[in-house]
Amino acid sequence: MKYFKNIHTLLAIFFMFLVGVVFAQSEKPDPAIIEAQDYVAEANDDFVSNEFAAAESSYRKAVAKDPANTTAKYNMGNNYYRNKKYGEGMNRYLQAAEVAQTKTEKHKAFHNLGNAFYQQKDYKKAVEAYKNALRNDPTDEETRYNLALAKKEEEKNGGGGGDDDKEDQNQDQNEDKKDQEGDGDDKESDDGKPKDSDDQGDEKKDQGDDKKDDEGKPEDKDGDQKDKGKDGDKEKEQPQPQPGQGQLSPQQVKSLLEAMKNEENKVQDKMNAQKVKGAKVKTDKDW
Question: What are the ranges of the TPR repeats (predicted)?
Fold first, then answer.
């Protein structure tokens, strides 16, 4: 009997040892992921130094090591965007959105995707990209500002408007119901330029200009901007709208945003009326 007790004790110790080994192995970080993060850090340094070819090479190595690395794909998109290779940038932003694990990551990828479409004058797709960005962060007024510009350009070029706009506003109302009515302060310091997603923890300021931008700044492997720049570093370029009649004055932008909000209020009134009648109204957007 004592012999069997000893056997049971030995077996228990053996199984505990096996569990400990398996747990330790599961906790060990994947070397490929660590290597990918190192490549991203190198690429970010190259980017800040305007070594764009070297940055692209390191970002590619990071993606090869870890295809799920959102930061590598997003920053490679920024690298292309900075060099006005908008088509390549779009592909990387889409890839970043596909592997993104958080709504914040998705929002940034779709926001800059919209900027790239805007640069190529594909305003319809820019509108859709900005809407996708707002679905992931309905509170971002910069994205809403860019959406208004893209819609305006789409209307000028014969697209959008009419019933399509009303349907979009109804959809936007559902998507944006988390917004506070009082946080829609218009940013009137811009002259019709689409703004870039503000994903940085630290804001770099251009001389005499405090507009925030994103597409030209890489993130480090932890998701924050790798701020290695010196005081003399150039501020990254803003996406530019078409010159001339394509630009809106601050007052025009303000009027456009107010008109959109009025339409949203009308939709909300209709929805409230339906609730009074007992009809079920779906207000939550399916993701």
Answer: 107-140
